[in-house]
Amino acid sequence: MNRRPAADDGPWDVVVVGAGAAGLMAALFAGRAGASVLLLETRPRPGAKIRVSGGGRCNVLPSAAAPADFHTSGSTASLRKILSSWSLAQVREFFAGDLGVPLKREADGKLFPRDDDPRRVVRGLLDACRAAGVSLWGERRVARVALRELPPRAGRGGGRDAPERGFALMAAGGATVACRRLVLATGGLSLPQTGSDGHGYALARSLGHSLMTPYPALVPLLSTDRRWAELAGVSLTATVSAARGGKVVARRQGSFLFTHRGFSGPVVLDMSRHATGPEGEATRLLARWGGAAAPAWDPLLRRGGARPLVALLSEHLPRRLAGRLVAAAGLDARARPADLDRARRLALVALLEACELPIAGSEGYGKAEVTGGGIPLAEIEPRTLASRVAPGLHLAGEMLDVTGRIGGFNFLWAWVTGRLAGEAAAHGAAPRLGG
Ligand SMILES: Cc1cc2nc3c(=O)[nH]c(=O)nc-3n(C[C@H](O)[C@H](O)[C@H](O)COP(=O)(O)OP(=O)(O)OC[C@H]3O[C@@H](n4cnc5c(N)ncnc54)[C@H](O)[C@@H]3O)c2cc1C
Asked: pTM of this prediction?
């Protein structure tokens, strides 16, 4: 059974900062490993982002996952090692078996709680944390962290051990707590009203870590050209490519949505990091309307016919988009394929097959589902998520330089890294756990 410290100010075996998906998991697994665990959270209630996720239903997991579903600017070998520490099947079984939250699979492969209630996920995690002896303090935003020499403890042989190095944390309300191992799971900068205000990066930096510049990812994009806004509400399948220096560096097909301010939908969110990330300025996003199912446009237009172009294109695309593309090609709304000279036909084909999306930034962290960049994977040990910079520190979740694509991959990352960091932190404190 885990042992609480004599006083609230510790030293605790493990303090976890941030009661989001990764932090709840870290606290739970550290508690189950026998450590005394304190979980500190800015918000009055934990798991704010879980409760609003997945359109209010929480897309807990994908039904299949591979390292290619994630992005890091660090080592893919480290990414692979971390992901393989807990298989998707095991995570799913953990939700159904351990937490009592069975998941259902939807047609697109996403897994949701069977009753579509994200509160079940939070409740399941909180009940399990409670059973594992975890103490949770809400409204305790950690403002500062410092290295601290901890008083020696009685050793196994009855003598006193040498002093240990641990951490002291200063939290809102003047609370100061000490711990032997520290897990930072403070998220990134996305949806800051849920508590993830980016301060966790400052805490990690104060302990010696560096930071890959954060940027909004999985985020709707803004358009420089107001004319696309006329299509607000139109949605269709599209293949979006990211091109840099004349080369396509990424391509994805999915549902595309025009908005009043620009572009959204799963395929835009998934590709947005190419526009908002470090190489965004040098990257062009190109859309093939209709995706792989679209016809070969050039032969179709060459075959001609007496019907107006807009009617012809509307057989394959939403009518409003067809009209907009014909106008963008400088053609009259009543123009027919037979009216096109070669140059105009090719201009229209280019707009249909590789239409450049005029991007003027993104909707920002207020709308971004995750934050790209973060603490570099090179600065953590992948088997334990222990810091290579600050001994005794572990890092988990979105604050690391890894993002997943839409579909439950970001929660998968949070669950897997939270468990790994929590267990390793507890075992790091373990030589003296029984002392
Ligand atoms: C609208 C929206 C919908 C989403 N839907 C999905 C989805 O359906 N499926 C999916 O896989 N992903 C989804 N995501 C992404 C997913 O929510 C995140 O990837 C995941 O929550 C990250 O978990 P985390 O624990 O690392 O960070 P967070 O969930 O952000 O948790 C960090 C916690 O740390 C606390 N904290 C921060 N700083 C401090 C501090 N200094 N002191 C104390 N506490 C602190 C915060 O208050 C917060 O509770 C969605 C994101 C958003 C914004």
From this structure: 0.95
